[in-house]
Design goal:
Mean pLDDT of chain B: 97
Strand order of the largest sheet of chain B: 4-6-5-10-11-9-7-8
Distance between the termini of chain A: 42 Å
Radius of gyration of chain A: 22 Å
Shape of chain A: flat
Helix content of chain B: 25-40%
Strand content of chain B: 5-15%
Largest interface: A-B, 51 and 74 residues
Oligomer: heterodimer
Distance between the termini of chain B: 7 Å
Largest sheet of chain A: 2 strands, antiparallel
C-alpha cells in the first residue's frame, strides 16, 4: 500500500494534526511501510469470524443514573491554557 | 541497596530501619544515578518524606498495611493528584492531574511511599523509551543500550536499585519487554484485573497496569495491593482476586507447560534461545511436564495489534486538543488552527505516526478492510490460546527476540521496532496475563523468559516464577556500579 503526499495531507487534516510540508515525504514513507506490514492481515481468510472488541467478550457495565461527581470547576480550569469567567476561551468561532 | 520489597517490610517490622531512613537512602541514590539513567521525569521528594513519616507513625502504632513504609515509583501515565502527569509528552508537560488513578490510590492506601514518576515512551507508544519528550532512558546493564519500553524508566529504576518496585502499564508488552531487557520481574495481569481508572488511555481494549520488582514474591504483594474490581472502570472485572502471596509455595510438580513452536522459530536470537532452554530444563527438573504446542496465528498478531492499537489511540488522543488542558500553540488564527498546531507541536513523531495510521484505518471506506478485519483476526488469535489451554496449564517462551539493542539502532525504521513485540502483543489481543522474569545473559545483557497464563491465573504465573527464583539467582544480580 503506497500513500501519496495528498493522502497524508488529508489524513492529517482528518486527525487535526499539523504536519510540516518538509516532513511530509518522511511520513509518506513511514506510513506506507506500516501499511505494508498491516496488509499482511489479508493473507488469511477471516470471513464469517465474529469480530472481537473486548478480549473477555464482556459488554459495558451499566450503572444507575445518579450524580457521583462534585463540582471541581476551579481545579479543572487550573490546567486550562486560557479561561475567563469560568469559561474556556478559544478563538472566535461564529462571526 | 538491592533490597526486595519483602526484605524492606521485614526490616521495617523489626525496626532495623525506619521508612524515613530508607526513603532518604533511595532519594540519595536517585539524585546520584538519575542524571546518567534518566529514569525519572519527576522526583517527589517532599511527598515521599511526608508519607514516610506518616508510615513510621503507623508502624509504631502497629497499624501497618500491606506496603506500609515501602518506597516506590509510578509510571508517569498514572494520574497523581497535584503532581504533574506528563505521559512523557510535551502536550501534557504542564498537566497537573486533578485526581489519583485507582492504582495510585490503592498503593497509597496500602501504605507505600511515592518517590516519583518514571520516564516512558510518549503515551506508552514505543519499545525503547526513545520516544520521550524528556529524553531517552539508559539501560543500567549497559548505558549505550535501550531499557525497552514503554515503561523503560520503571524497569531501569528497579534494575539500578533506585526503587525496590514500580508500576507500569502494558498495551503490547510495555511491562514484560522492559522487564526482560533490564533483568527484572514484571507482570501484566488479565485485562480487567487492575483498574484503568486514571491510567491515561492509549488503546482502551488492550491497556493493563501492573508491577515491576526484583522478584515474583514482590510482584505478588504489589499485585495484591492494586488488583480487584473498581466501579470507575467500565471494563473492570468482578472476579475476585486470588491471594497471590499465599499460593507462592505450592510448587510446580506435574504442571503442564506448553512451548509454542512459533516462539522458537526464525527471528529468535539462537543464543537467547539457548538461555531459555536452560531455564526450561530447570523447570523440568522441578517437576513440570514440558510439551510442544502451536499458536498458528502468531505472525498475524503484529499487523492485527498495530491496526487496533493505532485506531484506538487516534480516538483516545483526540481529547488532547489544546482547549481544556495541555499545550496550546501561540496566537491561533481560528479554532482549526488551534487544534492542528497545538497537536502538531505537542505530539512527538511516533505518536503522530500512530494517530495518522489509526485515523486512516477508521476513516470512511477503510473501516472494514482494517479495523473490522483486525477484530476478526483478534478472535482467531484468542481462539489459538484457548485451544492450547485445553492441553496445558501454562505457556512459556522468550519475552523478546533479542536482548537490549543499542540506543538509536532502530529509530529510523518503525517497522523493525514493532517486530520487537512479536511474543508479547498477542497476549494483549487475547487479554491474557503474562509475566517476564530474568533467566540469564547474552553479551552481558539480561534475557527474559515469558510465562503466559489462562484468564485470571496470575497466581499460577507467580507461583512458577517464584519456584524458579528459589533455585536461581538471575533475579538477584545487579548491574556493575549499581550494586
Amino acid at each position: 500500500m503506497t500513500l501519496k503526499s495528498d493522502d497524508v495531507r488529508s489524513i492529517a487534516h482528518l486527525a487535526r494534526l499539523h504536519i510540516e510540508e518538509d516532513a511530509l515525504d518522511h511520513y509518506v514513507d513511514d506510513l506506507s511501510s506500516i501499511l505494508d506490514l498491516v496488509d499482511e492481515m489479508n493473507r488469511v481468510d477471516s470471513s464469517g469470524v465474529v469480530p472481537l472488541a473486548n478480549p473477555l467478550d464482556a459488554s459495558q457495565r451499566l450503572r444507575a443514573d445518579e450524580v457521583t461527581e462534585s463540582d471541581q470547576r476551579d481545579k479543572f480550569q487550573g490546567n486550562a491554557p486560557d479561561v475567563a469567567d469560568g469559561y474556556y476561551r478559544v478563538p472566535r468561532v461564529i462571526e | 541497596m538491592t533490597q526486595t520489597v519483602t526484605e524492606i517490610l521485614r526490616g521495617l517490622a523489626q525496626g532495623e530501619f525506619s521508612s524515613h531512613e530508607i526513603t532518604q537512602d533511595y532519594l540519595a541514590r536517585i539524585a546520584r544515578h538519575n542524571p546518567e539513567l534518566n529514569c525519572f521525569i519527576s522526583v517527589t521528594e517532599d511527598i515521599a518524606l511526608k508519607q514516610a513519616r506518616a508510615a513510621d507513625d503507623r508502624l509504631a502504632q502497629g497499624k501497618a498495611g500491606l506496603l506500609t513504609g515501602v518506597p516506590l515509583a509510578h509510571k508517569d501515565l498514572f494520574c497523581t493528584d497535584g503532581v504533574r502527569t506528563s505521559c512523557a509528552s510535551r502536550i501534557l508537560d504542564k498537566f497537573i492531574a486533578p485526581y489519583d488513578a485507582t492504582v495510585v490510590e490503592r498503593i497509597r492506601e496500602a501504605g507505600a511511599v511515592m518517590l516519583g514518576k518514571t520516564n516512558m515512551d510518549e503515551f506508552a507508544m514505543g519499545s525503547s523509551n526513545e520516544n520521550s519528550w524528556y529524553g531517552n532512558v539508559a539501560n543500567p546493564w549497559n548505558t549505550a543500550h535501550v531499557p525497552g519500553g514503554s515503561s523503560g524508566g520503571s524497569a531501569a529504576a528497579v534494575a539500578a536499585g533506585l526503587v525496590p518496585a514500580a508500576t507500569g502499564t502494558d498495551t503490547g508488552g510495555s511491562i514484560r519487554q522492559p522487564a526482560a531487557l533490564c533483568g527484572v520481574t514484571g507482570i501484566k495481569p488479565t485485562y480487567g484485573r487492575v483498574s484503568r481508572y486514571g491510567m491515561v488511555a492509549f488503546a482502551s481494549s488492550l491497556d493493563q497496569g501492573g508491577p515491576f520488582a526484583r522478584s515474583a514474591a514482590d510482584c505478588a504483594l504489589l499485585l495484591q495491593a492494586i488488583a480487584g474490581f473498581d466501579g470507575r472502570d467500565s471494563t473492570s472485572s468482578e472476579t475476585a482476586p486470588d491471594n497471590y502471596s499465599a499460593h507462592l509455595e505450592q510448587g510446580i510438580e506435574g504442571l503442564k507447560i506448553g512451548l509454542p513452536k512459533e516462539y522458537f522459530a526464525e527471528g529468535l536470537d539462537s543464543r537467547l534461545a539457548r538461555v531459555i532452554e536452560t531455564a526450561i530444563d530447570e523447570l523440568r527438573r522441578l517437576g513440570a511436564e514440558i510439551r510442544e504446542i502451536s499458536l498458528p496465528n502468531t505472525s498475524l498478531s503484529i499487523p492485527t495489534y498495530y491496526v487496533i492499537a493505532m485506531a484506538e489511540c487516534s480516538s483516545n488522543l483526540s481529547r488532547m486538543d489544546g482547549v481544556r488542558f495541555g499545550h496550546r500553540c501561540e496566537d491561533p488564527t481560528d479554532l482549526e488552527d488551534l487544534y492542528k498546531r497545538s497537536r502538531g507541536e505537542g505530539f512527538g513523531e511516533e505518536v503522530k505516526r500512530r494517530i495518522l495510521i489509526g485515523t486512516y484505518a477508521l476513516s470512511a471506506g477503510y473501516y472494514d478492510a482494517y479495523y473490522l478485519k483486525a477484530q476478526q483476526l483478534r478472535r482467531m488469535i484468542k481462539d489459538d490460546f484457548q485451544k492450547a489451554f485445553d492441553s496445558v496449564d501454562l505457556i512459556l517462551g522468550p519475552t523478546t527476540p533479542e536482548v537490549a539493542f543499542k540506543i538509536g539502532a532502530k529509530t529510523d525504521d518503525p517497522v523493525s521496532m514493532y517486530l520487537q513485540d512479536i511474543y508479547t502483543i498477542s497476549l494483549n489481543l487475547a487479554g491474557l496475563p503474562g509475566m517476564s522474569l530474568p533467566v540469564g545473559f547474552v553479551d552481558g545483557l539480561p534475557v527474559g523468559m515469558q510465562l503466559i497464563g489462562n484468564y485470571f491465573d496470575e497466581a499460577r504465573l507467580l507461583q512458577v516464577a517464584h519456584r524458579y527464583q528459589q533455585v536461581s539467582e538471575w533475579h538477584l544480580q545487579s548491574p556493575e556500579g549499581f550494586a
